[in-house]
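call fold(seq) -> tokens
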Amino acid sequence: MPSVPSFLVPPVLKDNNEVSGKAVVYEIRREAKEIIDFVEEEIANIDDQILELQRKREELVQEGIPSWTILDACKVALSPFRRVPMEILQHIAVDALPAFPSPALNQSPMSLSHVCRNWRNAVLGFPEAWAALYLNIDIVHCNNLSWSSSVATNWFDRAPNRPLSLYLHFDDETLGRQLPLDSIQAFFRTLQPYFNRIRHLGLSADLTLKYARFLNRHALPNLRSLAMNITRYRRITDTVSQGSGEELIFEEAPRLRKLCLNDPAPLQIEFLDVEDATSPWSQITDLCLTKAIPLGDWLLILQICPHLRTATFYIEEGSGSHNASIDEEFDHSALEDLRLKINDATLYLQPCFEMCSFPRLRTLHIYHCNDIVDMDIVSFPPEFSSLKTLVVTGDWYESLDILELLLNSTSGLANLTLGTAVSDTSIFQVLTLAGNDRPEEEDESDTAEEPDRFLVPNLSTLTLVISLEDDDLLNFFESFEVMLYSRTYGVAEPSQRLKKLCITHSFNNDAVLEKIESILDLYREDGYDFQVGEDTDEASCCDCTECQWECEVGRRMERKALKRAKKRVEANP
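ret:
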């Protein structure tokens, strides 16, 4: 007997009557029809979805056709780049190199090696692209040391038989005095095969001198320049050996000629013998010290570096850490380029040139922070008359007469840069050649008057930093035009005319700049190279690669400190 449908069970149990056979058939047919209607409805919905998807696909295909066309065009355009000759690719690699090459994928040469196979082969086959490396090493993570050594070896292996430049910044400021000495020693041991090819070396860290000691164990026979950047000297004062500072000058670097230090104190110059011709200092020809040292130490350094030709010094008042005193005047016959920055308001300019003369000095940069540079000076050294380039920056606000005296002492000057706080109008008046400043009288007489003031008569290049702080605009432009005329058309001898002028500004005044441009346009039409440019920091210590690298390290540390500060704020809102 067939089983009874479930929907019939309740009535059966309720009244216990026999169910009619027709009712059973009716219910079964009704249920089947409902199921069939439901399935047909689902099929219809699926058909609608299929039609919608097909329509959407056709729309996407139509939209994608232009993109495919563009991609095809890009492939056609890229094809010639893949066929660029090897020589041109190498020129591109040279021009694309950043100032501080590093293993970053978004910088050349790494970026160029990822363009295509031909470009990669070209860059890998160009040793000059891999001859310089700037590494930032996180000492906190020792794995970074092994990674850095691997990067350095792979990098320099691509520059066989080439002079190398290696600049290392060790981020160890969170370690205190505890360094992973074994890992650091292994790092330098890995680089040892390249030491005989290193020409330029830079070390930067909180504990720079400890890293230098690792290098002192190895010979650097071809090292030409060394930069040591001590980021926090006060934390390592007790780590410096009190016996001798000579070991820190790399006695195993006989060809070392250039030395850049942001702090000379750890080198203990007082232990070096001035008369010792074999002293490592005696071989230095280019020295840059970017931290202030006493005047006495400066004079001592000049004596222990007799072959110094280019130098940058920050000096302050004082006889030195060990009362160094120079009793007799002496000549430094080798120095040709001197950058002198005085950040001490109590130190005048005259004492800097009293005990030492520079007969071969041709380029002089003077920065003074005080408004009164000197009070009693009546003349500058006679060797200033042989200067060819002079850069004067700083305050000098109350020292216009001293500035004029300085310019009057440099009769042979050809290049002059002035960026002081003295009013612009006063500067124009000082630079105006008296007797040549009256264009309206040009045709009244055939005989030109003798000028009663002829400062720097051979000046050919002039750079002025203007600020408009204390200037009346009418007097400013009048003095400016008179000065220009006196230096150009007012000079009878063409060889003595001003040929190149650069006006840099530290203000935002479009009307004034347009007026200056209109004045200069009159001279440009006659071939004069007169331009208006952005303000530059001529008070900076030096523009050499080593000093630029130290500045870049400083900016990098500032960015990291800012990130850490933000994290602390986020962690403790």
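Residues 233-247, 269-274, 439-452 have pLDDT under 50 and may be disordered.
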